[in-house]
Amino acid sequence: MLDKKLKSDSTHLAIKLTCYILLECVRGSSYICLDWREVCDGRVDCLNGGVDELQCFDLEINECDENEYRCHNGLCIPEYFWTYESAIAVCADLSDTSIVPRCPLSYIGFDIFECEEYSCQPGQKMFSCGDGQCAEDFGECYSGRHILLTDSMSAQGNLSFDCWRSMVCLSKVNDQINGTSCEQLFNSSQIITHLESCETLVQFPTIPVLYGHVYFLYRPRNIFNVSITLARTPDYVCYDERLCDFLTPSFRNGTYTCRHGHEMGFEFNVEYQDWKSIIDSVKPYFRGCMAISRNRNYSQHLSLYSCKNSSKLISKHRIVDGISDCYLNDDEQEFELSCSLNDTFRFKCSDENQCLSPLFPRTRCTPSKTHHNLNEILFHTICDRTVDVSLMTIDGQNHTDETDCENWQCNNIYTRCDGVWNCLDGEDEVNCTRPICPPHSFACISPLNYTLICLPASQIYNEIIDCLGASDESQYCRTVDFNIGISYGFYCLNRCLSHSALCNSYQDCPLNDDEKFCENHQGLCENTAACNRTLIQDVLCQIGLLDRVPFTLETIPTYPQVEKRIIHHFRDYRVESRTIANDIKSQLDVSRRSQRCNHGVDLYIWLGGTDYGKICFCPANYYGDMCQYQNQRVSLTLTLIATNPDDNLRASIKL
């Protein structure tokens, strides 16, 4: 178990995480141990020969039987579990469901089943937080594990003390060293002086920053100006050429090959906001690299696809799955191949020439976005600035339901005071609620600094999201049903939430946007709590609230319906300018991690006489005197199709 007191801003985090020690893993730092989810995840975490990824390519070439579903990681589950209508995932990587568990859960009793037995879902969020939550590299974890990763990047290694702490502050890996803040070093003008103690060429961090083989080189003696707020970009980016043969090196440094920083996207003398922004900038250049060198030749294997201009091989099941695995992104452009895989779980939208991986939601093909004739849409969806009818030719001209709308009276009995801007200047919503912003401007929350803003009418419905939840671009989460009507949702990072998901004490959005202003008040967005909300909370809670039912005589609104629409009529509104950008940093729920027996039961035992003691009763997947060690999760035998179809291999994979 890793138990360490760290400081993040003004909050002390008691980080208490379990470890997978059945592999002897050298991570280059004692700060962070291996998590079982990091074994066979396509990323080298152990610097001692990449032992966490050895023999894992056998999963890549694994094929399943006809009555089985192939998970994205190569494991197989019975087809029944794929077709069975359940939100519970059977694949360890969650690739058989679009519903990702909210991890960590509020109810700790369910953690071991809902969160602890899943690895990271395919996509960008591949850093394991150790409790079922996954984050981007150097992103935020509730558990605080990202802080351990950052601290491992701050290791001094073989650098002199003065050079080391100068590089920590310049790169913005951390904001303090041994209790001394970087701001103090900047203010005392010691940074430049300390850089003179560095070698001509310095590797920092002293361990790889990505994928177990990518590291940065700096020329610290050439640095003559420093910034207290911006991060210094590396002069060179180095990597293992055997894994990334598609990149052309500029020079060699020992056993590694390197490229100039400007060749990796870093503009000359341009600094970045923080350490994560540097990582995010360089990471795309290495997405096409292999995880580890392979001794066997798999190039002729029938189940593999060879990336263009590269020796990287991937399973053909990764073709057109929404995840770029090849450097040139050619795996996502092999449309013809995607339809010749004989994969019964792939599907094809009627207007596309590609067969999509089951990782794509089938709602991609739903006809709710575009219909074929006017009889299939609702009357009040005409001229609402969202196309609902497929392009059709009438009298030699192309038309949709949004054609010639400049002659449409946008402020009418159907659109008046319905909460949606149907007019370009918002005229149909004027005087419907107590005004927050000046006329012809839209009140919403900025997703950049989380303050209340008044967005000009010209920036509404322009396909650019300027407001939290995409409230200015409601077409992102707009659903039309001929029988039910129109509903709107809260948009965050390619997912849509219903209004009921706001302020429900669960983090549904990766950046916690749906809970940011709720201040731990469950049910804040329910009607009964309207009187107690601040203005900025009220603006948040209005997103996705509107449901427009099909127009009938029974549902016709009272015109102009002003009194009904005014919220908190007697309330003295005051536009708040407070920002909670700093709240993006997750706070560890110490109470959930304070128990002595991790995931186990703390028992009293009788030792004889009047003596009693405590022991931890551990579940099968944990062991140790405090259940601090992770056991093997998966033990299975795979049937592998060899180059020669008559020669089958069998391999045992354990995680």
From TrEMBL:
| Any one GO BP annotation for this protein | vesicle-mediated transport
Can you tell which superkingdom this protein's organism belongs to?
A: Eukaryota
Q: Which GO terms describe its cellular component?
A: plasma membrane
Cystine links in this protein are: 405-423, 417-432, 503-518
Q: How does it sit in the membrane?
A: Single-pass membrane protein
- InterPro entries on file: LDL_receptor-like_sf, LDLR, LDrepeatLR_classA_rpt
Tagged with keyword Zinc:
no
Tell me where in or outside the cell this protein is found. Answer: Membrane
- Membrane-traversing stretches: none
Q: What's in the keyword line of the UniProt record?
A: Disulfide bond, Membrane, Repeat, Transmembrane, Transmembrane helix
Protein name (record): Uncharacterized protein
Q: According to the entry, what is the taxonomic lineage of the organism?
A: Eukaryota, Metazoa, Spiralia, Gnathifera, Rotifera
